[in-house]
# Entry
Amino acid sequence: MTSPRIGPASAANRLLAALLLLAGALAALLTAPPAMAAGDSPLAAGFARAAAAQDVPRDLLVALAYSETHLDGHGGKPSASGGYGVMHLVSNPTAHVLEKAAELTGLPAAKLRTDAEANIIGGAAVLRSYADGLGLDAAARKDPGRWYAAVAKYGNASTPAVARLYADTVYDFLGRGLSAAGVSVAPQEVTADRGAYAQAPELNTPAAAAADYPGATWVAASSSNYTASSRPSSYAVDRVVIHVTQGSYAGTISWFQNPSAQVSAHYVVRSSDGAITQMVREKDIAWHAGNWNYNTRSIGIEHEGYIDQASWFTDAMYRGSAALTRYICDKYGIPKDRTHIIGHIEVPGATHTDPGPYWDWTKYMSYVTGSGSTWSTTVDNSTSGQFTASANWGTSTYSGQRYGADYRYADPVAASDPAWYQATIPSAGTYRVEVWYPSDPGYSSSAPYIVATSGGNQTVYVDQRSGGGTWRSLGTFSLNAGTYDAVGVSRWTSGTGYVIADAVRISKV
# Structure
């Protein structure tokens, strides 16, 4: 900055002194932590301070942490891939995020592992350093969508496809909103700037190799993490072993791709919507049980989450996993009982305790056997008398990911003009709402789904450029009994691309 031109030396000295005092006051004001609003939790205040200090969007920082840990630091204990704290600062043979955080902040690694606020500051500093490396200036940093590549890098993914999965998950939480541990993020419109990652394949694209289970996506684990075999001719398969990942979905997939992991499972199930990725062929022997005999005779299923956090074990996860287990049991003639469907802790000689005390075996087994079915309804855009939309909504058969014969599309406008799905809700209570849409780069970057809850309409924003061709959970909502327009798709969005309305599914929880 060029110094101002001033007069006599004495006047200059007085002015300099005044300027120094003013600068000191401004520095103190700028570096002081944000005031803690009434009702804020200490964790919420910690996110606010770290975001302000590193010029990182606060809601993005929270969404990233939530996708990793549901905002639980687990007492400083590491995840399966060596991640610590609410920000999951990883330290393993191939990733050194914890060490980078220590270098950037000057805080000792021990404090970063165990102190929540220090951990958040460390994660924010690492994320900001990635943004700086990508050339984000002060103006660009204000737009959460411009941080996409930095978020993808934070996930330490082994392939561009998994990096995209990781970042998409974070931005999905931004769109849907979240609340945990006294920290909230409101649903919001964000157009993620994927940059080069827009060319990375989605894990559920038809180009991916077919999985053994029709409902799964195929992503191969490192060949260093399992044993090739020819089951069931080489070994009979008579067990299903249930695990919990002690980490996130994308993080677990990446870890199983890492040759240094020396561990794998056949399948990984996501918490939010029950999506499934297969990583080891059923004919091969995954290294999951810690017991060679049980490895040779079983299929291992990992579930996203941590054993000491019940929030990860969603109804969508139970249902998705139970359908997979039922398929495996039918395929190999395995009895659907607790003798043959077991937890990792029940493997002889097990040193692990998963799936842990919060895993609901009664619910899970009822879904496996089919005795736990609850009310559910699916409404397609062509369901007679239950779908309404104005003439502004066109009809298309373009995408093979569509549900049913066709789907509807419309340009975004600054007016609601929603397409509505009507349902007859049998009783007041809690319901899971899922949506189906085909995805395409030309579809909406922030499609507003409206859920008519008992407390009023609630909007959730979904990026329809990815994640299509499967059921996507919007979350659980309190719904009133009766016949009414329960779910809508609005055109009122600042996002780009066609807004798509295809099908919705509502299920009693």
